[in-house]
Amino acid sequence: xxxxxxxxxxxxxxxxxxxxxxxxxxxxxxxxxxxxxxxxxxxxxxxxxxxxxxxxxxxxxxxxxxxxxxxxxxxxxxxxxxxxxxxxxxxxxxxxxxxxxxxxxxxxxxxxxxxxxxxxxxxxxxxxxxxxxxxxxxxxxxxxxxxxxxxxxxxxxxxxxxxxxxxxxxxxxxxxxxxxxxxxxxxxxxxxxxxxxxxxxxxxxxxxxxxxxxxxxxxxxxxxxxxxxxxxxxxxxxxxxxxxxxxxxxxxxxxxxxxxxxxxxxxxxxxxxxxxxxxxxxxxxxxxxxxxxxxxxxxxxxxxxxxxxxxxxxxxxxxxxxxxxxxxxxxxxxxxxxxxxxxxxxxxxxxxxxxxxxxxxxxxxxxxxxxxxxxxxxxxxxxxxxxxxxxxxxxxxxxxxxxxxxxxxxxxxxxxxxxxxxxxxxxxxxxxxxxxxxxxxxxxxxxxxxxxxxxxxxxxxxxxxxxxxxxxxxxxxxxxxxxxxxxxxxxxxxxxxxxxxxxxxxxxxxxxxxxxxxxxxxxxxxxxxxxxxxxxxxxxxxxx
Length: 544
Ligand SMILES: O=C(O)[C@H](O)COP(=O)(O)O
Ligand SMILES: [Mn+2]
Ligand SMILES: [Mn+2]
Known about the structure:
Radius of gyration: 23 Å
Bound molecules: 3-phosphoglyceric acid, manganese (II) ion
Protein name: 2,3-bisphosphoglycerate-independent phosphoglycerate mutase
Shape: globular
Domain BPG-independent PGAM N-terminal: 93-312
CATH architecture of the largest domain: 3-Layer(aba) Sandwich
Strand content: 15-25%
CATH topology of the largest domain: Alkaline Phosphatase, subunit A
Largest sheet: 9 strands, mixed
Number of helices: 17
GO molecular function, one term: manganese ion binding
Number of domains: 2
InterPro entries: Alkaline_phosphatase_core_sf, BPG-indep_PGM_N, Metalloenzyme, PGAM_B_sf, Pgm_bpd_ind
Organism: Azospira restricta
Structural class: alpha/beta
Distance between the termini: 26 Å
Low-confidence stretches: none
């Protein structure tokens, strides 16, 4: 049990943590869909309630450097755990730098498994460092050759979401050149298939299994339009689908004489080289699960399969992994549960695992007294429905508040992020407006329950919808004069607003230089009248 907090007995009603996914605070309003949105509720909150800025990127959330943007995994991990752990990006980079990864049993088994066949790598093909890093792939290819393997095939998921929207050839071109260079002395390494990450393979939270099926058919069965190289494939697909950005490009297969060069066969080994779990779990299940029934796999090759990390510690998925994931312990979910606090978590499918699995330290099981509510997301391009399920999440939250059953409630509004990733400025302003409207309904229900809210975000996105010119800090332009859309997250801090109409002005927030997402667990504990757990970073609550 957490101890009583001597300075404050706790608010009479519940504490509600609201994550506005992808809502950052830009230095400059140019190109910010948030600045352009009409958002009377948020404007009123910023004007009338205590609010500070939180660090949500780089080392503040366990990324290797402060040049790394934040993302949902590291952001929700930091919020939920109240602590910062070195995250997958850092753990893998370190394991490669130290060579420890090659000594591990998993890598050795992969090498042994591929000895008589092919070693396949499937993963996100960029240096976004959110799900993967192409340098990790390069190091594994070099090591595979050093281990005496003869054949490597890469299944490249094009990004354009964590990196500029049409940057695929900046990765594919140099990498195909590198593969040609190392393909000597009987070693043969090539890209074998690929496609846009929002089109195949990398679905998450069971939102769209047909995406994974399409990926299976591409990587494993080698079905799809054939090209001589991945460079040629990207060029041809762009010409066939004008205006389509990398993440949405259709699948392709590399072929020779009409035959795919790298189908996945019995006796091969497969490494899924993303370190982040949400979009790695479904394809991993397709390779590993005995009674798999999400789609007809047609042919199931007997392979030695490994993930870069273990993606789910509860489900032990995958069984074999190259690097141990961060051992996230003592999360707020766990300790609030141990303190007898009933907790309610809600989001729509696209972010459901963020407020449950990431929040609880990458665990798929509930702690005692937790209720999880998923609102099914639409399966549509989100720029066409920027309101997404903000209204339905709000309905669910209001019902949960009215039930009087919960002392801690948490939700995630996906809009700023999911619509921000489309690069559509106008839709992103509507996304923020939808969140604002949702807040205008949710906050009175919190008042009625005698509660308070901590309103925050996990990282920026809609706050910068255009690439900014490095010198002028104004939106950069394409040759035709249009602005260069930016689909990725930002490096900006995020807000923390304390919505409190119950303490009579006793409560405020302290702006510390180092204040970040990992300070939220302790802050929520204090609002509940509880001391923070000894491992949690300090509370930001100011009690007068
Ligand atoms: O997976 C994605 O959609 C992006 O790579 C990162 O976005 P998220 O971290 O907000 O989920
Ligand atoms: Mn996010
Ligand atoms: Mn995102």
